[in-house]
Write a structure and sequence with these properties.
Blueprint (H helix, E strand, L loop, with lengths): L6 E7 L4 H9 L8 H5 L2 E5 L18 E6 L2 E7 L4 H14 L14
Parallel strand pairs: 1-2
Antiparallel strand pairs: 1-3, 3-4
């Protein structure tokens, strides 16, 4: 039986969003290779077709919106994209504010 991730970062985007395209060019290739990407793997969602398995605090309005989710519930979010340095800074702040959110529970993966 597949086990749901404990944490993930949902990128809410839409076709034609220039800031989404910029994020895709500047951040997307490196994101899964980073510590942040390991802790909260990226999942993409369309603004007009939000996932049913996530309880958002409020519906996202802007794209991109990055929503930190744990066990299907929103913990925090970043609205918009203002460049790579600012994104990493905000993401680190968000992850540090929620140390309980991790993709791999500490008891798993040990052999």
């Amino acid at each position: 039986m597949p086990q749901a991730r404990a944490a993930e970062l949902i990128m809410v985007e839409q076709v034609g969003c220039p800031w989404c395209e910029r994020w895709n060019a500047e951040i997307a290739p490196a994101y899964p290779k980073t510590e942040e990407g390991q802790r909260a793997p990226l999942r993409r969602a369309d603004l007009h077709d939000l996932p049913d398995d996530v309880e958002f605090r409020s519906p996202p309005v802007f794209t991109p919106t990055f929503v930190l989710v744990e066990k299907g519930r929103e913990l925090d979010r970043i609205e918009g994209y203002a460049g790579d340095e600012f994104f990493w800074f905000l993401l680190d702040q968000m992850l540090n504010a929620h140390p309980e959110a991790t993709a791999i529970p500490e008891t798993e993966g040990a052999e």
